[in-house]
Design a protein that fits this description.
By secondary structure, the protein is mainly alpha-helical. The protein has helices spanning about 10-35, 40-60, 70-95, 100-105, 110-120, 130-150, 160-170, 175-205, 210-230, 240-270, 270-275, 280-295, 300-330, 335-345, and strands at about 345-350, 355. About 75% of the residues lie in helices and about 0% in strands. It has a two-stranded antiparallel ribbon with strand order 1-2. It starts with 8 loop residues before the first helix and ends in a 5-residue tail after the last strand.
Length: about 350
């Protein structure tokens, strides 16, 4: 992906990726409501991602791909375990208990959870002596408070949908709602840990397509084993509905395959915190697609909790960016200052911004 350049490229890419992920989540929720095993969805999704990206990775990166060592293989295994298998096991199961809007809202807590985990593993630092440091902590707490609001307060429905109301009466209640929220948050936490692992993989194995293929292979095997926990019925693996087949193909080739490649590239360019900063786009995309296209019900608690999450998110990001700027302001040594002053005596900058060197007289 070296041909993509410019400071706006990561911003545009991660925005498009999150819009796609929001729509994919809404479609997967529709499929899960039809009774399909969530781990069957995850296994097919990762398998399709492998088949889709394998030829691209082979031809595109065959000259630049480094040797796959045991250490790199273990890193990819851990990456697949946290970022694909366990994440999808928890998140898709939680999604089956709730809805796509609520599931997407929990992605707004990802920057805060990523930062907290980075502090725990000493991959980041926090200076509480500055206002920016307090803002980071306050933003993280507000985001987590929003997640708690999403979990504890469902509220009244803001839209009417007889079909969806019937589904809710059949297999959902407050107990499943709490359970679903806990699983959603756990899934997002697993994905936050994946971002930290992927940031390290990008240094030792800087090939996004090949890296995603390896992750998908490990993830497919792991999800297939995890699916045996819930069901061992062969009929669960037979896809009969056209919408289910189309959804899984889109989720595998685009949602899992290309979006993972793009996300890895954005992590490499701007880091995990920047990449996770655009998670509210998933919420907006899933909500619009869920409400306008699939005509799903939206709850007051989901709206209030989502707003709180987004407010906390951007307070966190604003404080974090200010902290990064402050950390770059370093005092120059005295010798460097003197050299700079001496250089200014012999160098002048014209109006066009070009350096005009004034010759020294003997």
């Amino acid at each position: 992906m070296g041909y993509i350049d410019g400071k706006w490229a990561p911003l545009v890419m991660i925005t498009v990726i999150n819009m796609i992920n929001g729509m994919v989540q809404a479609l997967i929720k529709k499929v899960l409501d039809g009774g399909l095993n969530h781990m069957v969805v995850a296994t097919y999704r990762l398998g399709i991602s492998t088949l889709f990206l394998l030829p691209i990775a082979y031809f595109w990166e065959r000259k630049t791909r480094p040797k796959l060592t045991a250490s790199v293989s273990f890193q990819h295994f851990a990456s697949a375990l946290f970022g694909a298998s366990l994440m999808q096991y928890c998140y898709l199961l939680g999604l089956s208990y709730t809805n796509a809007t609520l599931g997407s809202a929990f992605w707004g807590t990802m920057p805060a959870t990523t930062f907290i985990m980075a502090l725990i593993f000493r991959l980041d630092k926090l200076n509480m002596k500055t206002k920016a440091g307090y803002g980071v902590v306050l933003g993280a707490m507000i985001s987590l408070a929003g997640a708690l609001t999403l979990t504890l307060y469902q509220g009244v429905p803001l839209s009417n949908s007889q079909e969806y109301a019937t589904i809710l009466k059949i297999h959902k209640g407050h107990e499943n709602w709490f359970k679903g929220c806990f699983l959603l948050f756990t899934g997002v936490t697993f994905f936050s840990s994946w971002m930290l692992i992927q940031a390290k993989i990008n240094l030792s194995y800087p090939c996004p397509y090949s890296s995603t293929v390896i992750l998908s292979v490990f993830g497919t095997l792991q999800c297939a084993l995890l699916s045996l926990i819930k069901s061992r019925n062969v009929d669960d693996w037979i896809l009969r509905d056209k919408l289910t087949i189309i959804t899984i193909i889109i989720a595998g080739a685009v949602g899992q395959g290309m979006c993972t490649v793009g996300t890895s590239w954005c992590i490499k360019q701007r880091g995990p915190v920047f990449t996770s900063a655009f998670s509210p786009v998933i919420l907006m995309s899933a909500t619009l697609f869920d409400f306008l296209i699939l005509h799903r019900m939206i709850y007051l608690g989901s709206v209030i909790g989502s707003v709180v999450v987004v407010v906390g998110l951007y307070l966190f990001l604003w404080s974090k960016s200010k902290q990064i700027v402050d950390s770059k302001i370093v005092k120059l040594p005295a010798s460097t200052v003197e050299e700079a002053k001496e250089e200014e005596d012999h160098t002048n900058v014209n109006k066009l911004g070009r350096h005009m060197v004034i010759p020294m007289t003997p």
